[in-house]
Amino acid sequence: MGTLSLVWGLVLAPMGWVLLLAATATPRWRELPERPGYPRDLFFSDGLWESCVEALTQLGPACRTLPEDTAHFWPMWVLRAAAVGSLLLGALAYALAMLGARWWAPPPRPNLVATAGLLLMLAGATYLGATSYMAHRVLQDLTSPQTPPADRFHLGTCLYLGWSGGGAEVLAGVCLATSFCRKRGFVMRPAAAPYEVDY
Length: 199
Description:
This protein is α+β, with helices and mostly antiparallel strands. It has 5 helices and 5 strands, in the order αββββαααβα.
């Protein structure tokens, strides 16, 4: 059971990390197709660092850095720090898990693997918090009557990637943290076998 849990943790952790990396780097945290006042073939999207406009007639999106007022708004700094910190913490935790598993020289180090599991849970929870906060802000602006129709963005693809990756990181952390649990308490030992003595 412990080995299966360890393998699941070591498989889920890099999968979640790749999803988080894609969500952090791609400018699709909020999206707005068919923005009022603009041509219907334009697709607008914003990320943590860039704002993009994509036209159906062009090959790729035209991106620029976020506007000054958005880029220096303190929640954006917190979201960026949470995303990058979660990626770094996830990479560190996976390295610790690989060192703790010690496939090349048994026995494994359970304390190191459990620590890596806790760090992975923290990394995943941090990213889940960041994406959930952004989703809350997007939905709040979408439903607010004070928000102009041209600024009513929808939830972006990267939020779903972030939720999936964060969930995978948390699940990997749980698998790693519980892979070396031992039952404590009274252990029944078999009775010593009688032995014969030659006189």
